[in-house]
Amino acid sequence: MVECIFCKIVNGEISTLKVYEDSLNIAFLDVNPSSLGHTIIIPKKHYQKLEEMPENEAKELFLVIFKLAKIVPKIVETTDYNIGINDGKLAGQEIPHLQFHIIPRFEGDKGLPIQSLVKIEVKREDLPQLAEKIKKEIENSAIFKEGKKVKSEDIKSEEESEDKKPKKSAERDWQEFNFEKQDKAPDFSDARKGY
Description:
The chain has 195 residues and is an alpha+beta fold.
């Protein structure tokens, strides 16, 4: 298995500005932050995507995120923040190791909401059928054995609003790194331009 830069951080081979660590997870400040207090939370075990992680470990990871979301914004004197994950190449994942980001938000920071990341034209009339397909998959899935089920009558289409033409996002190529020769975190500032 190719060792990733986050695994090197976990193993202490690369120094970082660590803010939290337990037996399963580690959190540190992003070296190329989008905002003051931008914090990355990762599992110590190497998982590329969220669905690869065992449920009990995911619960522990989300508990850390939940607790840090109460502290990080407070320290940088804001109450607002985004929590994000880039899960896979097409979602902009730059390092193939599961990672969550807490990004504090400030007045006039020129940032956009998460909904602005992707703009694909979706027909509202197709949403009820899509919701039904997801609901049926949940009902048939072992993942939701104890989950509360959604009734079909609860699925309602939203009121029509102005149609907006979707914006095309810049295509992002997976960034390859030579982890054996690289001894510091890569600079992703160019990758973030336009976001």
